[in-house]
Amino acid sequence: MDRLPKWADATLVPLISILIAFVISGLVILAIGEDPINAMQIMIDGGLGSTYGWGYTLYYATNFIFTGLSVAIAFHAGLFNIGGDGQAQLGGLGVTLVCLMVPWPNWWLALIFASLAGAAFGAAWAAIPAWLQAKRGSHIVITTIMFNFIASALLNYLLVNVLRPIGTMDPASANFPKTVAIPHLGDMLRGMGIPFAKGTPANITLLIGLLACLLIWALIWHTRFGFALRAFGKSEPAARYAGIRPVRITMYAMLISGALAGLMSINNVMGESGRLVLNSSEGAGFIGIAVALMGRSHPLGVLLAAILFGFLYQGGAELSMDTSIPPQLIWVIQALVILFTGALDNMVRMPVEAVFRKFGKRRT
Amino acid sequence: MSFDTLISILDSTVRLGTPLLLACLAGLFSERSGVFDIGLEGKMLVAAFLSAAVAYMTGSAWLGLLAGIAGSMAFSLIHGLASITFRGNQLISGVAINMLASGLTVLVGQNWFHLGGGTPALTGAGRFQDIELPFAAALKGVPVLGPIYDQLISGHSILVYAAFLAVPGTWWVLYKTRFGLRLRAVGENPAAVDTAGVSVVGLRYGAICIAGILCGVAGSYLSTSLAASFGREMTAGRGFIALAALIFAKWRPWYALGATMLFGFLAALSNRYQTIDLGFLVIPNQFMDALPYILTVVILAGFVGKAIPPRAGGEPYVKER
Question: CB-hemisphere CA count at 13 Å for B59?
């Protein structure tokens, strides 16, 4: 079978997939008696029409950059990490401990150590499934799913019995001190004289996310380790024959993946809520799967897909305020994106390949 | 712990274990045929919603059950389309199905009932009533055996009895019929089945349809028998506990009964007690909630009795040309 040109594989197939997902979502909106065109308009206005909307869109996008990269790097090693959500929650625990236990003199010192702690906690939570996969052959998909549930039980216990300040009923940690509040994007831009809406949660973590995209790109395509990672992901026997050690690659890939998921928590825990709450990750680990699939596991693709999903989240929240459409519409869109770009990829790809074959023949 | 408390905990073990058992058997059929199914949760959720919605609108729990099965089947077929026909990634398809279910149930539920994604309470024939087995009242006074018969064995809805009958049923289909032999073979070595002239695609679709029916009954039980309405995200991870039980049971029907009842027992304990005080150790109930998952990880790690999945599980079958 003829292969598709690289550009078509990287852009055309995902674009067609997402178009199908949007058309079906539109039909769903139509079926519940709302106007899809009007809904789209509200979403665009709410998500991209103002600096206020952008402040939220970019905040959500930052979460998804980290979880998307987390899933993507595991994909490159042929591993499917569904545990991003649990790893992000554990990362939140690390960030919280660092922010509450040490009297930090300023925010940037706190940010550095909180990032390290978040990444370390996330990586540690991914390490056990990784080790079990590498050494004992336990299926990583199943173990990471189990670890998500174990993580939420653990966090539930810690928040209710250990971290909850005396005298409050909320299962949440104490508020972080003011000194560790990291700068928000709006404040930074206004400081530079650019007008930006106040009170939006997008913060400096976005810049760390962009840096992470760059670093992961360099790691995957411009280092020996990255080569070994991709070789292992393409064919394990071939990689083994070339002297690449499977246990080591599996461990490193999952540690990096877990660390990225854990890093997400500096955005939502330190940057937005300023304390640890129950289910702090809000399912961002699962959205990472959609983002990585749509972005074809390339950091640039992940970045673009993360912004798209950030927009959908913010737009969806606005939509639920203005219409009777609940924000769960986004779950439907997201599920359809995963379905068409991930599971039904061949259904989209086969007709495209057929068109290219026909077109190619005519030319020769 | 008094005898009465024990009986009441065991009674709620049966009630809480039943949906796990049905979903576990659904996963068993699917995975024994070589199709991984992490979408059990989503299928149960859709079935629970449609059952409650239709039972409320028609006033008949039986029509609700049919609607639930239909919804679960539809999602099974999406999974089949993705993982059998188009040879996509079965795990990704399962993830998508779970998300689609949790999104659609709220979206449609809000549109139909305006109750934040739930359905109104079901009454009368809209629910499956508990069945009183013969002589339950008469034998109540007999010591020990009386309460066991009256409270534990009698007094469940028909779906509970169906679920327990499904265990020998599954065993019989899997090990005593031609379909079962082929089903097990297609999960281990689809090429051999294909060589023998049996359709791999047909067998696998058959298996996921059975899984769809069982998940449908499981979901319907949740909203029309265990509870009296549908609530948002009401499956609450039960599909994944069933998946864990399936691994715990090493993909075997009788073991599945044991595993799901064990997990049902843990859930019953955690429902009843906030903490369990063993004297030297106090166990918080969050630990009881996490225990099914921890046990499954231990089993998967192979330290205690290795669980070996069907060999062709997760691999789409590509016919050689």
Answer: 1
Residue B38 C-alpha, separation from nearest chain A C-alpha, in angstroms: 9
Instruction: Name residue B64's amino acid.
Output: G
Four-CA torsion B131, B137, B140, B141, nearest 10 degrees: 180
Residue A31 has pLDDT above 50, yes or no: yes
Backbone angles phi, psi at B277, to 5 degrees: -100, 110
> What residues contact residue A258 under an 8 Å CB cut-off, 6+ apart?
A70, A81, A83, A87, A122, A123, A124, A125, A126, A127, A130
Among A278, A286, A282, A269, residue whose Cα is nearest residue A94: A269
**Cα separation of A35 and B132, whole Å?**
51
Q: What percent of chain B clears pLDDT 90, i.e. is strictly above it?
A: 40
In 3-state terms, what secondary structure has residue A160?
Answer: helix
A282 at interface of B, judged by CB pairs closer than 8 A: no
- Render A4-53 in DSSP notation, one character per residue: PPHHIIIIIHHHHHHHHHHHHHHHHHHHTT--HHHHHHHHHHHHHSSHHH
Residues 6 or more apart from B169 whose CB is under 8 A from it?
none
Whether the predicted pLDDT of B244 surpasses 70? yes
DSSP letters of B238-271? HHHHHHHHHHHTTT-HHHHHHHHHHHHHHHHHHH
DSSP codes, B2-30: -HHHHHHHHHHHHHHHHHHHHHHHHHHHH
- pLDDT exceeds 70 at position B305: no
DSSP state letter for A9: I
Strands B282-284 and B275-277: antiparallel
What is the predicted pLDDT for the residue at B86? 87
* Domain range list for chain B: 3-239
Token reading at A28? 């769903």
Check residue B177 and give its pLDDT: 94
Task: For residue A301, give the 3-state DSSP assignment.
Answer: helix
pLDDT digits (tens, 9 = 90+) for A43-87: 898 888 888 889 999 999 999 999 999 999 999 998 989 999 999
A residues 55..84 contacting B (CB < 8 A): 80, 82
Distance of alpha carbon B137 from alpha carbon B132, whole angstroms? 9
Quote the mean pLDDT of chain B. 87
Interface contact A27, partner B, CB < 8 A: no
For residue B282, the cross-strand partners are B277
Closest to A17 (Cα-Cα) out of A343, A355, A337: A337
How far is it, in rounded angstroms, from Cα A109 to Cα A114?
A: 9
CA–CA min distance B21, chain A (Å): 18
- pLDDT band, very low/low/confident/very high, at A1 (cuts 50, 70, 90): very low
Q: How far apart (Å, rounded) are the C-alpha atoms in residues B156 and A76?
A: 50
CB contact under 8 A, A153 and B110: no
CA quadruple A312, A267, A91, A334: dihedral, nearest 10: 0
Domain spans of chain A, in order of start? 45-345
Q: Which residues pair with B277 in a beta bridge?
A: B282
Q: Does B167 have pLDDT greater than 90?
A: yes
Residue B304: predicted pLDDT: 64
* Alpha-carbon span B9 to B175, nearest angstrom: 33
Contact B100 A153 (CB under 8 A): no
Q: What is the pLDDT of residues A159-202, one digit of tens each?
A: 888 888 888 888 888 888 888 888 888 888 888 888 888 888 98
Rounded-to-integer distance, Cα A17 and Cα A39, Å:
20
- Architecture, CATH, for domain A45-345: Orthogonal Bundle (1.10)
